[in-house]
Amino acid sequence: MRDAMNRRQALALGTGAVVAATLSLRAGPACAARNNSEEAIKAFTRGKEPVRGKVKLELPEIAENGNTVPMTVSVDVPMTEESFVEEVMIVAEGNPNPGVISFHFTPSSVAEANTRIRLAETQNVVAIARMNDGSVFSDVRQVKVTIGGCGG
Amino acid sequence: MADVKPRIKLDKKDIAKGGVIEVKTLVSHTMESGQRKDKDGKTIPRKILNTFSCDLNGKTIFSANMEGAVSANPYFQFKIKPAESGTLTFTWTDDDGSKIQATEQIKVS
């Protein structure tokens, strides 16, 4: 009986240690510091809560090299003079700076763009589209990064 | 920077009105993010191309604002619906104010 207790205690201790290690890892390297992505998004949406949908963010599930991750963003709306996507902002929650890129569209362009981005670590990438009437839509993808693009 | 020659590819240059042209652009640039440190531990200052724009006859139809998280040698692929014939001007602006520019002629009939 005493043995069992000890084992249980040992297990509890072990779990605690793992949790602590994970937590300290999160707050660990300067590269992984939390950035102010929420504020950046709020400034972009002008305080509105983005609606999920319409925007499609395509990123690989696993990026072997965080220095160059192919990314495509598209918005499923017809682009006319009356109604068009004004701007699409890409935000990386786990990069040193939240901003990645923002695309400005006009009725003379198609709401779709592809580029290559840097991701410092495994993280969520958010795309937010703002229409010319001010409504906002979003999409989010998690990317697992094998080698970070922080460039030591 | 004037010696940098961007590569631009249009899938077609002669389209019917309402048609779509796919544009691919690539330009050489280190896109120094401002996050890296040199061997003495000093931060290497940021030096990137911060804006890109695609203008038709002087009017911007597509543009992008870039941050340090855009990969070196920035590549773009996008689509345009030009309403008229004319000159497409592609401009990249560096943090130091210099510009890289290229043009293409298109025909819309």
Q: What does it look like?
A:
The complex is a heterodimer of chains A (152) and B (109). By secondary structure, chain A is of the alpha+beta class. Chain A folds into 2 domains: 1-30; 34-147, SoxY domain (Immunoglobulin-like). Helix content of chain A is 23%, strand content 41%. In chain A, strand 5 (85-92) and strand 6 (99-105) form a beta hairpin. Chain B has one domain (7-108): Immunoglobulins (Immunoglobulin-like), CATH 2.60.40. Chain B is built from no helices and 8 strands. Chain B has strands at 7-10, 14-15, 21-26, 49-56, 59-66, 75-80, 86-94, 99-108. In chain B, the strands form 2 sheets. A 5-stranded mixed beta sheet of chain B has the order 2-8-7-4-5, with no helix packed on it. Chain B has a 3-stranded antiparallel beta sheet with strand order 1-3-6, with no helix packed on it. In chain B, a hairpin with a 4-residue loop joins strand 7 and strand 8 (99-108). Chain B starts with 6 loop residues before the first strand and ends with a strand. The interface between A and B is medium-sized, with 34 and 29 residues. Strand 6 of chain A pairs antiparallel with strand 5 of chain B, so a sheet runs across the interface.
